[in-house]
């Protein structure tokens, strides 16, 4: 309904299981975020805005510790297999300060699955750093890379596709006047507002235009 009425949608996938994660209910493994995002992509194309005037607009946010982050950065690229692309989505990174500290020092960065390392999307600042480093020390990460390797992959994706957008998780939460409600996990499509949302609390941004000479 939002897309049908020309609304943009922002959502996060930080807590979606990474590729290869065990699924107890089926005794199988997860296909990661890409197949799900392709469904969103096709939904945006199907539920267009204003009677085929333009496709629906979805912005998808992901934190850079997620084990599928490299596949995420490739989603809009013009080359590669079509079944791992979602070119109609807008991509965004929700970046903790710790990642930028590691980039600055060319330190290590550990990629994790939210199912195996829970809680990272639900905290920020010192609490996030303590939890992330606890998982690192416990060896619960999927893969360790140089932070600058991921940073250069981000720059390459931006050069080629104009995405991902960049928002800074810790700063957004520290400055928010809604911090008493909980951790904010993403922005909206246009990245100009930051509001708290939850399963029972949907954040909404309304846009309006005024023709001042009419007054």
Q: Overall pLDDT, averaged?
A: 92
The percent range for strand residues is: 15-25%
Number of helices: 6
What is the approximate shape? Answer: globular
Number of strands: 8
Structural class: alpha/beta
Whole-angstrom Rg: 18 Å
Q: Portion of residues in helices?
A: 25-40%
Q: Largest sheet, if any?
A: 4 strands, parallel
Unreliable stretches covering 5 or more consecutive residues: none
Distance between the termini: 33 Å
Physical arrangement of strands within the biggest beta sheet = 1-4-5-8
SSE arrangement, N to C: EEEHEHEHEHEHEH
Short description:
This protein is of the alpha/beta class and 215 residues long.
Describe the structure.
With 215 residues, the chain is an alpha/beta fold. The protein is 29% helix and 15% strand. It has a domain at 8-94 and 150-198. The chain is built from six helices and eight strands; from the N terminus they run βββαβαβαβαβαβα. It has a four-stranded parallel beta sheet. It has a two-stranded antiparallel sheet with strand order 2-3. A hairpin with a 4-residue loop joins strand 2 and strand 3 (28-29). The protein is globular, with a radius of gyration of 18 Å. 31% of the residues are buried. Residues 2-214 form the Ribonucleotide reductase large subunit C-terminal domain. One of its GO terms (biological process) is deoxyribonucleotide biosynthetic process. It holds the Pfam family Ribonuc_red_lgC.
